Amino acid sequence: MSPSLPASSPAEKLTLAMVATGLLALLLALADADPGRQQTWLYLALGLVSIGTLTWSWLRFGRHPAGVQQNNLWQRASTGRGSVAWVTGLVLTGFYVVLYWYSSDDGQGNFGPLNNLVHGLDSFSRWLRARPADQWFLYGTFYTLAILLMGTRALWKYRHSRYQLIRTGSVMFFQLGFAFIIPALLQFFQQPEFYFSYFWPLKYDYLFPGTAAALVHNGGLGVFMVFWGAVMSLLATPVLTYFYGKRWYCSWVCGCGGLAETAGDPYRQLADKSRAAWRWEVRIIYPVLGLIVAITAVLWVNFALNSSLLGEVGSGAAKWYGFAIGAVFSGVIGVGFYPILGPRVWCRFGCPMAAYLGLLQKHFSRFRISTNGGQCISCGNCSNVCEMGIDVKQYAQRGEPIIRASCVGCGMCSTACPRGVVNLENGPREGRYQASPLIHADSLRILS
């Protein structure tokens, strides 16, 4: 007979009811035709969801002993691909579909099904950006709020780990400051919107000739933006990855990774760890990287030849890439499928930046995850928390270091290990594929 799920306390139920009431207020904001009430309902919804989530996080994690709790994850309807997970996935997927294809401005300030929510943020947008809201400002606000709220949850949950506290604080800082406030302030001062925490090939158009020419034409700040994007993509990224692995970006800076590590944390155990999934990962992610490299190169050659090589064909390929990869893969599938496939589907199978960083990490970096096979008790906690589908336990049992292109260095395998078997290291490149003598000594001592 399987153990019953632990019951939520009355206080937890009350906070969850507060969140549910906030979601109801969000529906009322969508349906109400009065502009004044739309804004009231929207801000009431955001307030109730925020207060409810923060209070629930403290009640659930802050009042209990610190540590990685993995009990009953596969029994819960929300985290074990049950009915709640499927409903959540459908709602998220539906939101992205509506956002990308049914919420564009019709030229008269109408944003389709999301019109009431967009205009509900008009006053906030005018205060921050000196212009009315649009569907992308709505999305950015929701995205940032999700990272901040669920990031606070992660801070309570992993408060015993200094590494997790700093890493979670980092993704919250970069999302709020570099991906939300700074781009908005640039617009406030009539400058081009620019995200200093996103680089090519993830933000693929930042090194396209059309984007670069438009920024340079804007003046000194635009020139700096082009310089920043080129240096961070082609120089700083290899150097930082050499010293720290891909974790410096994927787990500390990137907004996609930030959402996965915070809002996606309840679903990290869902990542497929089969060999078949790994094969598909290799078959998909590297062709995506090759595709955007080819498109970028073709666009620059075409630009150098005054569009005499391909005309508008290159631009058409770029638009197709933006639709198929930038919208469908990274948004609809990458986030909408969190509750079903885990939070790193986009990072694992489709992100060209992850592929670029992964190649550098595997072949040129000093980063590795060391394991001590002599101390491993095969509990499987490390594999269960790996959102990138790496079966960490198999490496730990054999005392082998983990050097995988897909590893984002989140450190959760080390945090979840009850015996300190798994450790993140930035050691010398020499010998990084071999286990340390201490590991072999421990293994021999136990076997004897």
Automatic annotation (TrEMBL):
GO terms for molecular function: 4 iron, 4 sulfur cluster binding; metal ion binding. Residues 367-395, 399-427 form the 4Fe-4S ferredoxin-type domain. One of its GO terms (cellular component) is plasma membrane. Keywords: 4Fe-4S, Electron transport, Iron, Iron-sulfur, Membrane, Metal-binding, Transmembrane, Transmembrane helix, Transport. The keyword Metal-binding applies. InterPro entries: 4Fe4S_Fe-S-bd, 4Fe4S_Fe_S_CS, Electron_Trans/Redox. Pfam families: Fer4_10 (PF13237), Fer4_5 (PF12801). The keyword Membrane applies. It comes from the Bacteria. The chain crosses the membrane at residues 41-61, 82-102, 136-156, 168-189, 221-243, 284-305, 320-341. PROSITE patterns: 4FE4S_FER_1 (PS00198), 4FE4S_FER_2 (PS51379). PANTHER family: FERREDOXIN-TYPE PROTEIN NAPH (PTHR30176:SF3). This is 4Fe-4S binding protein. The lineage of its organism: Bacteria, Pseudomonadati, Bacteroidota, Cytophagia, Cytophagales.
